[in-house]
Automatic annotation (TrEMBL):
Domain Cathepsin propeptide inhibitor: start-end pairs: 22-79
Molecular functions per Gene Ontology: cysteine-type peptidase activity
Protein name as annotated: Cysteine protease
Transcription regulation found in the keyword field: no
Keywords: Disulfide bond, Hydrolase, Protease, Signal, Thiol protease
Similarity annotation: Belongs to the peptidase C1 family.
Native source organism of the sequence: Carex littledalei
InterPro entries with a match to the protein in the record: Papain-like_cys_pep_sf, Pept_asp_AS, Pept_cys_AS, Pept_his_AS, Peptidase_C1A, Peptidase_C1A_C, Peptidase_C1A_papain-like, Prot_inhib_I29
Amino acid sequence: MGEFGRGRDKGTIVNNTFHERFENWVVEHGKNYLSTAERQHRLEVFADNVKFIDKFNREKKYGYTLSVNHFSDLTREEFAAKHSGATPSSLALRPSNQLNLTSVPSSMDWRSRGAVTKIKDQGSCGSCWAFAAVAATEGIVKIKTGKLISLSEQELIDCVTASSGCDGGWSDKAFEFIISNGGIASESEYPYKKVQGKCRANKIKHNDAAALRGYGTVPRKNETMLMAAVAQQPVVVYFDSNSSSFQFYSGDGIYDGPCGAELDHAVTIVGYGENGGKKYWIAKNSWGTSWGDNGYMYIAKDASKKSGMCGLAIHAYYPII
């Protein structure tokens, strides 16, 4: 099978080189396994992943490289089950009446403008939908008020009944909760637990660290309009992350495939630019700083397909305050 069906070879032979690399990797990432059998299984998965990474980098078919990271003992299927979790809404899209096409700079990076909080880590909870919505909200709050506040993903995971907590959800439903709730708590008031718990929104003393009055959507399959939106604020997008190349993306280069458009993961686009004639989006992910470029991804912009690279131009949302 191709990239999307790559599984572990049965009867993997693990030589001493892989043993040594695995043991060093286990120490580096603080891994613990419950049994000798589990440790052996993870060694075999690790060896297969390293072989894939090395082969990918040797072939140089794409404009980026892969690297061993903290996900290297997971199969692609295990990784997808634990670290994605976004589903685009099937509801009618809201209008994009705030987008200004007359003043769009050629490049933008909201990180350099102080509108992006530190990289966070969703862990093995399928809560990317909450992290993406929070990052976009943090950005617009900073842009409009001058205050950069780390907000609570946990409140959304616990309280957005229209989503499924750690089993996936919708970023637009997160925005709707913030609107109807009169705001969202700060991360310090309602910290992240990596599991879904009982909603405590009514018990939080200060549940209005940030408030929204609405949200908009970018016209589908239109990267020009997406660029106009990102020029004004960070924007939530969905894309297809169901590939080992996503799992091991190193941050060295611009991601240009392989991928489809089966949307399963939400990130926040915090900028765009061009390097060596290649245009890219800057995506803030929620897989920790050991993934990508310290947690960020550079993904090809203005792709030949109208849906955008990996489908990122199909569904895009931005909060309004």
